[in-house]
Amino acid sequence: MANASLQSFLPQHHHSFLTSTAHDGSPPALLKLTTNASNSISFKVFASGASSVTTTAASTANSPAPTSVTAAAAATTSPPTPSLELLGQQLAAGDYRQADETTRALLIVLAGEAARRRGYVFFSEVQFIPTEDLRAVDALWLEHSGGRFGYSVQRRVWEKSLREFTRFFIKIGWMKKLDTDVEQFNYRAFPDEFIWELNDGTPEGHLPLTNALRGTRLLENIFTHPAFDCEEEDEAAAADEEKADTGSATGQNNKDDNKGRGRPKSLTDFKPDYSF
Fold it and tell me: What are phi and psi of 202, to 5 degrees?
């Protein structure tokens, strides 16, 4: 259709157009348009005392068609669908950064339609995550970290921290100690200041990350999910051991003064403010 329309305006003979006289008084130029068998268009400009100039443009009929975006190319521009298989592949490859993203996406999918539409999980929606699925996610993290990463690991550290989140954040490395005379801690900046590799210096339970921008209830509900009920007795024993260690550190007479041991006074009023 495009070629037919073009030919209707350019029949197979010469067309001449006389340009208007130039402002400098030079003679008018003659413009001729011709077409040939190859359906190209030629423009010739004739002026007295000057040689002709020819410009040829191929018609749209001979122009190559625009390259279409293939399904494979489109797939590379969109994130892969989160799945346990994908998570296992990323963890096996040691790609903890992408595995963390996939874990977060999986929780959103598992938490229900409202969470999927919203793009994040409310703490009240954690109860809708199937027990077997949350255990499967945790098992993959345990398997590919030598038992150092995963929600169950974080829960154990949380219990040993007497369920006090500031102490918990410090122990798993989500907060860093500042170089100041007074002992102070601050939250790590996402993503550059977090540790995306497993080595001797990586704190136990450092991954996966959980957004605490809206408070710690989401983390608390994950840790107290029925998926981890089987560990309650062991964690209760660990918490009792932690209390005993704290009480014996300075003697029985000072145990009331040591209830806040391990928690810097400067963090008393801190609230989590993560964007990951």
Answer: -75, 125
